[in-house]
Design a protein that fits this description.
3-stranded mixed sheet, 21% strand, single chain
Length: 160
């Protein structure tokens, strides 16, 4: 199976998208991460839900977790206000690497190796040429596992 066969449509946002809308998208669809596209629509980064949560938590609480116990619930309920007026690009870590990109002809094992090497929950599948990068879809770790386990199950099932 090739990367083009494994790739599926996946929720993506641009660096200029509203951060609160992106957080809602993650929450509503229970997504572990979003693919972030640049101004040209090319893969720029992966925004993990954990990074979005980190943006919500005040820096003083991240530095001293014991302070989380003294923050009252009313204040905690307003954490999402930290996203108001912010763009997705503002929520990306300054050290966020470019997302891993597989060639459409890569095998499932090549996609798995890439995902494992960079410890990413997803790999973009795209063609690259002089005009730029054209996104075909995304292979998520859970989808890849599903496909690989399905093949393994079929291979181990005895035939009569």
């Amino acid at each position: 199976m090739r990367a083009r066969d494994l790739a599926v449509e996946y929720q993506s946002v641009s660096v200029d998208s509203d951060a609160l809308d992106a957080a809602r998208l993650m929450a509503e669809h229970k997504l572990p991460a979003l693919l972030v596209l640049d101004e040209r629509g090319e893969p720029k980064a992966i925004l993990p839900a954990s990074q979005m949560v980190k943006v919500l938590v005040p820096a003083y609480v991240v530095e001293d977790p014991a302070l989380a116990a003294v923050v009252d619930e009313q204040h905690a309920d307003r954490l999402c206000q930290a996203l108001a007026g912010r763009r997705v690009g503002d929520c990306l870590s300054s050290t966020a690497p470019a997302p891993p990109i597989a060639d459409p002809d890569d095998t499932a094992l090549e996609v798995a190796a890439l995902m494992a090497r960079v410890r990413s929950p997803m790999v973009a599948v795209a063609t690259k040429d002089k005009a730029g990068t054209r996104l075909l879809g995304v292979v998520t770790a859970s989808h890849l596992l599903h496909e690989l386990l399905g093949k393994a199950g079929a291979a181990s099932t005895p035939t009569a």
